[in-house]
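STRUCTURE:
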């Protein structure tokens, strides 16, 4: 019975065999590795992944698809909203310290998924995701570009990222109205030690009025926090490198009254 894609789940199923092969090659799954696929759908990526791995864990929200997936003897099926999945508990259940995570993420909730995984990055070896190309452009952006923003800073603090593959709309059924791409995300071995909530707040304030000089936005916030370091406020938010945001957040995190 043919599965009809559901808009509420953001379902666009990958059908282009050449693109599928290129994605699997980029992931490079090896026998015995513990890989978790988010949103396996009709198993376009699932089947070639499991053929290389021997077994695979998948997270699927759609009940009808989950029923189908459970008939596959090599799949461990987690029927759940990925935003509710405890990846630390999943790693523990699977008996490993780190998980490799992959998938064609629903574009309507891709950022929440990325931040959900960011909070559990300690159990992630690497991530390979297909996303809207526009989102990946923001993830890998350099300072002083229009794509550089909050998402850039928060993710580059914890991951080294690379846009590894362009995927056109005609590779899907139904075709999305946007271009897609595949990103590789590898957690940094020695990220800046800081309070993630402080960094998130700092970056949110900085980019709240991105056309304005930071003196008019971030300046007062840093003053209220008792920041004693040096920070050039005569720039716009997009002109500040990730490392400088990290240094400011790390300094505030180390302060006795950091909150």
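SEQUENCE:
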């Amino acid at each position: 019975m043919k599965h009809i894609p559901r808009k509420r789940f953001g379902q666009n199923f990958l059908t282009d065999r050449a693109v599928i092969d290129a994605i699997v090659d980029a992931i490079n799954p090896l026998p015995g590795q513990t890989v978790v696929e988010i949103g396996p759908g009709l198993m376009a990526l699932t089947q070639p992944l499991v053929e290389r791995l021997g077994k695979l864990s998948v997270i699927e929200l759609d009940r009808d698809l989950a029923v189908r997936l459970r008939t596959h003897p090599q799949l461990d099926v987690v029927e759940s909203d990925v935003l509710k999945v405890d990846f630390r508990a999943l790693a523990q259940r699977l008996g490993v310290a780190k998980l490799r995570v992959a998938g064609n993420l629903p574009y309507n909730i891709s950022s929440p998924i990325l931040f959900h995984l960011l909070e559990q990055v300690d159990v992630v070896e690497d991530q390979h995701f297909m996303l809207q190309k526009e989102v990946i452009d923001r993830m890998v952006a350099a300072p002083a570009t229009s794509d550089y923003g909050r998402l850039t800073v928060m993710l580059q603090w914890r991951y080294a990222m690379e846009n590894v593959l362009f995927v056109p709309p005609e590779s899907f059924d139904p075709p999305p109205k946007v271009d897609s791409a595949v990103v590789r995300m590898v957690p940094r071995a020695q990220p800046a030690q800081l309070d993630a909530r402080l960094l998130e707040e700092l970056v949110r304030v900085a980019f709240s009025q991105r056309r304005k000089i930071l003196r008019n936005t971030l300046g007062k916030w840093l003053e209220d926090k008792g920041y004693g370091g040096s920070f050039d406020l005569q720039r716009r938010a997009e002109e500040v490198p990730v490392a400088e945001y990290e240094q400011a957040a790390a300094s505030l995190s180390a302060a006795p009254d950091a909150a």
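REMARK: Residues 242-254 form the longest helix (13 residues).
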